[in-house]
Protein 1
Amino acid sequence: MTNKGDLTRQNIIDNSLQLFSVKGFYNTSINDIMETTGLTKGGLYAHFGSKEDIWYSVYDMAVRIWKDIVFKNTKDVKNPLERLEKLIVNDIKLYLGGNVFEGGCFFLNMLVELSGQSPTMSKHILQGFIKFSRLIKSWLSEAQEKGILKDNLNLKEISNFIVITLNGAAAIYASSRDAAILNQTVDQLRFYLNQLKK
């Protein structure tokens, strides 16, 4: 059973996610968070020690939301390349195209804003991108073991390229909101993956 303290904490996280997504971390003040949550400073600090502590909880929630969307219907796809293609389509069409976070891709926005400002926080985000790339590499390794991919491919380089391409699409789409960017990215990555097949 959820208690009042848990509900208050979730209220802070939910509202802060929208604020950080639209205004950024540094442009969001504690007063902004107090105003949107209806809490006093004491009420806010009863749950979080600092704005940075709130950000880490917001980040974790954003990851859960992203995973629920991007990994939707991928678990049962046996062919690892088809699974990867499904993940790419989910990321591009459902996550980015779905405008899940009002300010665009939460992770890309935060990485750009926090780089050079907060090495600890930006490193935390970067680790998420690295884990994502490693997962893609593991799926590519699985495809190679099954004889689907050409031999002697640099799977780390390929997985990094896919993550970079997804982030590039996120940046361009955020500034244009042009659905053609999303469609072209999916088409180009499909073409790219087909070139890797035996």
Protein 2
Amino acid sequence: MREALDASGYLFEQEVASLIETLGFHVETNSAFLDKELEKSRELDARAVKVLYTDDVHKFQVIVELLVECKDNSSPFVFVARNKNLRELEHASPIEFVFPKREYEKRLSPTSTTFVPAFLHLGLTAAHYYYREAEKTTQFVKVVRKGREWVANHDGVYDSLLLPMAKAFESRRQEASKHNSGTGWRTVWLFFPIVVLRHGLFVLKSGVTDALPEARQRLSFVRELRSEVVNGHYLTDFVCFENLEHFMTTDVLGFANAVVELGKQKPKVLRGDES
């Protein structure tokens, strides 16, 4: 019975949930969400929420929410990487972060204006780990044993893993946006879709002759997804279990605390009351 449970991955999910709870998150395993495209209930392995900051005077709060899938994998995940372009380094705005005001008006001249996404207007690019990295990952595969050979297999990987996570995020984003309707309190809701692997995370740098896959503990993957309910570039972090606590405390909460500090310095700007 124990061997069957180990093979199922259920025990690994509980390990991951327990670790996240030690960091002060409220964790719900097998969290349900509505897949509007298929009109049925689906589940995430875990959803974790932490109210990181509350300002009773200016009436706003910062919430961190993790959307977690766990893979107790026996086969390695291998990502292909290359350098980012200028837009990806300086002008991309992740949709996973929900601010009270989506865009801020910027005057270009006495007669023309443009609108800048909140993430960029608030100057948060330098505070986020993904934008401090020169490389991006563009594809990934599972390397599996097939007879006497190893085969790079990507069949169904995106549809079975990334698309459901994007749907879960869109469902949660809709709920989070309701907190910023009407008058009164405002909420900054920071979502982090995360795939936790037991081990076996590698990256191969493209364009390098005879390059070999290198082991990594964490990497970020941005993928454009389109369906009836998802539309955009979605960022998912892949992290090995042994690195999960470090990733959470250093990268996830490191960025979230930078948002908190901005809120302490400029609460009305973060609320969206001022520019």
Protein 3
Amino acid sequence: MPHDASRPLLEVKRLSSGYGSVPVLCEVDLAVRPAEIVALVGSNGAGKSTLLKAISGLLPATTGSIILDGTEIAGCKPDKIVNLGLLQVAEGRRLFREQSVAHNLDLGFYGAGLDRQAERRRLDEVLTMFPMLAEKRRALAGALSGGQQQMLAIAQALMRAPRLIMLDEPSLGLAPIVVDQVFDLLTRLRDSGCAVLLVEQLVERAMEIAGHAYVLQDGRIVASGSAAELHNSAAITRAYMAGRGPGGSRS
């Protein structure tokens, strides 16, 4: 069934979550529309990664709702959420480093239930987007540069043709020229119709490509609006200054 353009593709409502008895997120509201890049910014420890994990089903929701294209996914297992078209690329480029690039890409199909012909078509589409990976299909993932590994991690997620992809610090540890390549890729994904929820410490760069943005501070959304409105706003300054002081262990 096609998506109803009158509603967000992803809608998070009053979501609270954490680790065991340790609360991290408190009544978070957030929305992502189709073919939109949404930036989620805040200092280290604000709860950004925790929010992505809760949306992905890796952490339970204490209270609240997570709706993906009209389907409630709070409480769903991660594999069901993936099958509904939402994928996360975690921080740290988590790949099978002793396996080839080709094998890592094939693992992106795990559980998809596609026939070989459909898999080949999708692989050709993804390799067209990542010609560097096409050249290095036989290379071990662990032998790639940091930027190449980041591209492989994103490409692996794209093998499932997601409707929404969430990325946690994709620029971390990358050279500036590679950061440019990553951000260019994200805009191309948006232009192709894939929605993007982006957690990124390079706030200036994130705001340049995002249409909407949310500022997370101490597990709460303290500001939201168009990226242009929030760019260089006092809310962002306060959120990052607050993160420099003593605080908890949110992530």
